[in-house]
Amino acid sequence: MTSTGHSVNLIVVRDERPPPFSEYAGPGWQARAPYTASPVSQSAATSVERAYAHCELLLRENDKDRFLADLFIPASHRRHIHALHAFSFEIARIREFVSEPMPGELRHQWWRDALEGNAWGGVGANPVAAALTDTIDRFGLSRFALVALIDARGFDLYDSPMPDLSSLEAYCKNTSSVLFALAGEILAQAVQAPGAPADAPPDDAAEDRSASRLAIAAQHSGLAYAFTGLIRAFALHAARGQVYIPSDVLRRHGSSSEEALAGHATPPLLASLAEWRREARRHLANAISAVANLSEGLMPAFLPLALVPPYLKESENRERDLFRTPIELPQWRRQWALWRGLPQSASAK
Q: What's the predicted TM-score (pTM) here?
């Protein structure tokens, strides 16, 4: 394992409540005083600051993995990463609050309109939307990429099986890889070339190379992280009639989406899950290699990858009931994995 290179205060948060479903939809600490979240009720100078505080609290209470990993983001940019992750969480959990697709589609459309500046009532009444649009404007982030995330999440509103591995990869690129890419873009703007004066003209060729390396790292990171999150959530998906294991993978092992919902861990189904894990580890290996080519200042954006190996390892536990027990780790193990930093290989524990 690589070291983060920082002296840290390791804070063990003693909150072992099972995470909500949305945490699975399912991405360094600098020496500082013990971290305390900023409650929304705390006095804030502006409505935008209150919006960012809301995003922080939303992640702390609902997406603990992202929240803990974001502690490694430099404080000057952390709240902007919070806004991205809080937006992703809000879109991912829409399925939980609707009984049929149409209300979910309407909610998705509100978010599309919000990103385009046409939301009914404006974005000010929604703190996540307010913080997100402020972050987009500050860093020139792609609204198109975020609209694509919403479009991809439309799959979640229905019970159709995932048709094939290519479709799953497209889904994960738009819902997960994009978050790594945009977080990297935010941190990249904080990284200045060594020795370059602040007013130096941009080196277009160097910027293109850096953008290409970031895109490759983000793509594989998002696939590894999302595959792992979906494997973890297999029991929760099956309970509500959803199958994210690609149908072509299931057929290759003599299984089917119907068998994946039948409640029995058959050998063909287990073989299909094993292939899915191999795909996750393949993307993790590619991600680790790609991240190694990035500047050190971008590394915190990819720290959630540190959680992939232990989660995949836990998913191989044959004593766990595949259909009744979502894959989880004690929080101290997650914090320890993040503190140790990115793995050196896909097989690192």
A: 0.84
